[in-house]
Design goal:
Layout: H1 3-16, E1 29-31, H2 53-65, E2 68-77, E3 80-88, E4 94-98, E5 119-123, E6 126-132, E7 160-165, H3 172-186, E8 189-194, E9 196-198, E10 203-205, E11 209-211, E12 217-220, H4 235-244
Length: 252
Amino acid sequence: MCPAANHLAVEHMLSAYHPSGEDGVDTSLYILPEMWSTGFVTSPCGVAEEHGESLAWMQRMAREHRAAFAGSVAVCEGGAYYNRLYFVTPDGAVTHYDKRHLFTYGGEQRNYTPGSDRTIVEWGGVRFCLQICYDLRFPCFSRNVPQTLSGKSAVPSYDCLLYVANWPSSRRRVWDILLQARAIENQCYVIGVNRVGSDDACQYDGGTAVIDAYGKTVIQAQDNTQEIISCRLDMEKLQAFRKKFPVLQDAD
């Protein structure tokens, strides 16, 4: 539960990782799980960050690695607690999304304030819709509704759903199925980044994966293993599929 220790652990993983892929393109986005600096906490008093220590660390990592960093942190702001997903770019700019659907079954709603709006951020030519864990169960909130931009024909509002999570192994099958469903119904990539390990309440076996718009797994991490995996989001392939099979234009 010590943020400093988790900061250091991630730094060690990054130092051992060689980011250049086969196509010679460096990693442009690193994604960490939900509440990555502490583990999932439903009683945030004394744990939630008030001074942005983990955010400052993410900004430093983004600058040093010349890549964006994303991950959720428990924060205290104005006397209220939020499960906040930060998206940080190398220039220090910060976009955030506050978790909309709090996990009532686990008591998250007792202390946290829910967010109200979706957040979409563009990076590297990809529009990411930021989501956290339990949001995965609510397809209406993540619906990829076409929007008209600059007088052009309607286009989907995002290209990739990004979920960070503390999703327990007891419900792992649900995680796998819903990631695929969100990708298929929204004609987008889905990135799901889940923790491994355990806490007093649950075991977590991972299931981190990238799913394409066909519902196929592009890449998946090994279960019960802390590791960095990477892949390239093929935007040309995605756009071609949307043009050939424009199901989103018929959405309610």
